[in-house]
């Protein structure tokens, strides 16, 4: 299980509803705790252990709450930096096997670490930072790794002192809850907690032994061919990705048991961050359910349905009143909400869209070619999916268990759904 036995609980105080929520979830589901991770697929010369220690040290500067005592010493840093060698020449399959083991490897007591994976291809390696979700959300984690990469490349300077995650900076007034805001927040919490109507269950997941590896598969979708579609439809990139996911799950269901599931609802995190927010701002999002139109055969109508639903979600969720109330939510309600919101009958799957690092990341001796998001699997869910953009492409990363069939085909079905959508919007327009 990814948390070490001596992992201390974070001290989020009354500012971080979701930190308290994740802590409660970890206690209820110790074999599937939520961990945020990305695999940075690089080419060039793999960094030395000294360089890996420097990456860990810079991360501690950005996240002082995670910094272990004596973080400047090699002995302490080495407890947060690890190396794993895939089978020589095993290619992407070997890399996926290692990532499946890393996803369930124990975390240090601080709740964060960094792995270097080599051997799967000549001149290629992967850097895999991981952090406990109770300490940081996906947007914050991506911002931290981006800043570390820019500092290593010389395009950014190390920061000064920073507040602890989840604690507002001096002068940061996030407002108080109004009567209307309280009502909106209550509706948001009620929907993700009660799950009415219930979500379709995509597949049964058998009981698994602690530490059993998960499976990761991914595909890349270039964003340039999507621009005419975005301009013509007024939809967002996230809307397009969710519509393609609906198309992929439609194909998955038809091949798996000959039917298209009805009532598939994705649990989608909606960020409450603003441009000025700090990377180490803890967890700042609210979960929302989005009905995926799997039974709609026309790809453009699927996109229109998704866009309408996500606009409603954003209008109800992205409110200072909502966040103000969530920060003051009693621990008992936070625990109950987390237990309910990630149940398979409330959300069929988790679908998270996390902004990737801007531009191409480089450091002396190597460059980052791709970034693969590694989303955790909530207890009882057959798979989860994460989207992350980087370098003109979006990586669509699926996480599942070996017992769930069909994942090998999901990336291909996603590609097919993207092609179908673009061709429907502009006949003859290639996706790749």
TrEMBL record:
Domain O-acyltransferase WSD1 C-terminal per the UniProt entry, residue ranges: 282-404
UniProt GO cellular component terms: plasma membrane
Domain of life: Bacteria
Any Gene Ontology biological process: response to nitric oxide
MF terms (GO), sorted A to Z: O-acyltransferase activity
Database matches in InterPro entries: O-acyltransferase_WSD1-like (IPR045034), O-acyltransferase_WSD1_C (IPR009721)
Region: Disordered, residue numbers: 154-173
PANTHER family named in the record: O-ACYLTRANSFERASE (WSD1-LIKE) FAMILY PROTEIN, WAX ESTER SYNTHASE_DIACYLGLYCEROL ACYLTRANSFERASE 4-RELATED
Name of this chain's protein: DUF1298 domain-containing protein
Source species: Streptomyces mobaraensis
